[in-house]
Amino acid sequence: MYIFDTLMNRMRRGCQTMAYPHGPAPALPDRHGGALRLDASACPAGCDACAEVCPTGAISRQPGSSTTLDLGRCLFCGACTKTCPHGAVTRTSDHRLAVRRRDDLLLGKPGEEELRLAEALDKKMKSLLGRSLRLRQVSAGGCCACEADINVLGTIGWDLGRFGIQYVASPRHADGVLITGPVTKGMELALRKTWEAVPEPRIAIALGACAISGGPFIGHPQHNGGADPVVPIDLYIPGCPPHPLTILDGFLRLLGRLEEQKG
Amino acid sequence: MNTLAPFFSFANASRVSWASVPVFSVTKLVRLTGELIRGGARLVAWFGVPDHDETTLVAILAMDDDSILGVARSEPVSGSYPSLTPKYPQAHLFEREAWEQHGLVPVGHPWLKPVRHTNGDAPANAPFFRVEGGEVHEVAVGPVHAGVIEPGHFRFQCAGEEVMHLEIALGYQHRGVEDALAGGPHRGTVFQMEAVAGDSTIAHATAHAMVMEALAGVEAPLRAQWLRAVALELERLANHTGDMGALAMDVAFLPTSSACGKIRGDFLNLTALLCGNRFGRGLVRPGGCMHDLEPERLATLVERLKTHMADVEQAMAWFWDAASVRVRFRNVGVVHPPQAVNIGLVGPAARACGLVRDVRFDHPAGWHRFSQAPVAVWPSGDIFARARVRSLEVQRSGRYLFEQLAEPVDGELRTALGAPQPEALAVALVEGWRGEVCHVALTGHDGRFRRYKIKDPSFHNWSGLALALRGTAVSDFPICNKSFNLSYCGFDL
Ligand code: SF4
Ligand code: SF4
Description:
The structure holds two protein chains of two kinds.
Chain A: H1 2-13, E1 36-38, H2 49-53, E2 59-60, E3 68-70, H3 79-83, E4 89-91, E5 106-107, H4 123-129, E6 133-139, H5 145-152, E7 165-167, E8 176-180, H6 185-197, E9 203-207, H7 208-213, E10 235-237, H8 244-254, H9 257-262
Chain B: E1 8-10, E2 14-17, E3 23-24, H1 26-38, E4 42-51, E5 54-63, E6 68-74, E7 80-82, H2 92-102, E8 105-107, E9 136-141, E10 153-159, E11 162-169, H3 177-181, H4 189-194, H5 201-216, H6 222-250, H7 254-275, E12 284-285, E13 288-289, H8 295-321, H9 323-329, H10 337-343, H11 347-351, H12 359-362, H13 383-406, E14 424-432, E15 435-443, E16 449-455, H14 458-469, H15 477-484, H16 489-492
Parallel strand pairs in B: 3-6, 7-8
Antiparallel strand pairs in B: 1-6, 2-14, 4-5, 5-6, 9-10, 10-11, 12-13, 14-15, 15-16
Helix pairs in contact in B: 5-6, 6-7, 6-13, 6-15, 7-8, 8-13, 14-15
Bound molecules: iron/sulfur cluster (2 copies).
């Protein structure tokens, strides 16, 4: 009997996959806050209230120069936005955070109040990977929350497979690596070997504050301070951990699938 | 009656002055620890504190039946001391760790090798136990595994399909969490505590907060304690649901696997409703909680929880209804109850061997002093039992949450923390979803951390996985592994 019940229940539940990106994106939790924005022109001389509360040194202010905020180090704790008395650092509620170059995560210069969202791969890479991207995930020293939300994309709610994106078991079957964690000394060799085993052309994605800068463990001698020093990175997805929506946006952005949707 | 004498006895989440921790010669400390373990105590922590050029060993024991903890320390030692491990295997990793961190040799330890390889080598570059024989072959797996999963190295000694021995080498995730705590707390400390094991953020952050509160001699407001208890069960629900889905996946029972994958995310979203982050980052802080659960938000939480609980109970019902699932889980990956006691298993893995062992019940602190869920146990020690305990705990956590959410506690959310007491030791145990999380802080004369010791439940339980594999087919490793689902980063620190 149970097979019959199971099938009935299954049918009753219907399709559970979200409409996004064909429909609207699911809302971020109201307390999430999304990306940060820094309007350094609002910072009066001598104020570094935000820098004093930041746990990772993501905000800095050298005497005589303007405030800078590095979203690659940011844990999105919100301490700076609550502390800033001048409304210079604010939350945008925007889930889109992925960038192509490390520098695109630095905020502060005039005209660079927000991050510079990732552009798609070039035409050749897009034609190779745009409809089928296989990623070998390498976890290298984080806290496993990034991995947890990478996995969530594979569930029926998000159904990453519908975009032709898949996590694979062997680097030989992969088009790229998806790196989490600050790349501990213990994992450096394993990451290098995995990277070298991926056939060219290949891409590398650094996911989470750890993989971009060391995240909450920034500055510890037991790791490399992110994936950059070990593997050249094509896409950075900040967050601690990034929301699944942020991760998916990053993947689709890289593959140029978002513009396509909009036509 | 003081059942842990001559150790100094105290309760969970409290502080002891360092001067009142009894000092014994190291030989006597080993002997007394052994006698107390024989008398029913359990080793909660065993670690070194640097003292000039020498090391003071600290032993923390728990007498679960009496809800009491005990602590004692050695005179400063260097060189070696007689090992506890040959008689009390639950000490084996603790002694290896103290050797790795302080160079203290436990004489007579049967398998002395590093725990994490902090010297920068890949952890697998060490000798492994080998079974000799023409028919014996060795299978090496990791550090990079086939799925999206943390790194670790597994070395199997097999005769055909049968596993004779499994040795697990970890340390790949070692990122220096304990080292960074020296002289703390620092500005980044709470963020690191939340990332000791990212799927146990609430458990570790709560243990850290309780340690800080004990050191400062204050308690978090009751409303914050209540909220922490709520968040802890949401964390348990999300992870247990994920584990049920993963187990279903590994026996190819797809309805439950795909449903649980989705419902796990739904539970994570409930935590995000509380604090904005799906893993509970930013909720728990020393002194209280950062986000309130206002009446409207609470009503939303209850509504959504009702739906998700109905969904998960249904998904689990399909699973337990299927004879093909049940038969696949029975008598596979067995840990026998005496083994569980010997190696000091904790959490659902221990309860699946019939041990009634649960910090929420045995050593209630915080909100659990006022309300507890019944402890879920199952006697058979196999994968079936580990899955069964999880599924019972899902039901009980759900029921507990509905009870708690029906009677919210009024009051403040945060209290100011004074300066930590100098020269004091504080210990906090929290029952995370994997079992007993333990944080110990020892302050120096300036009130800063002289030593901070973290123990994730996985520190005890990886040995359980190794034992569960004995005599099992190597192809059963994935389901055995999922049935424990231990933390690499929590172990590696
Ligand atoms: S939100 Fe980011 S930049 Fe601001 S204080 Fe937190 S970690 Fe630092
Ligand atoms: S970035 Fe944050 S969530 Fe991701 S692995 Fe690092 S600590 Fe964990």
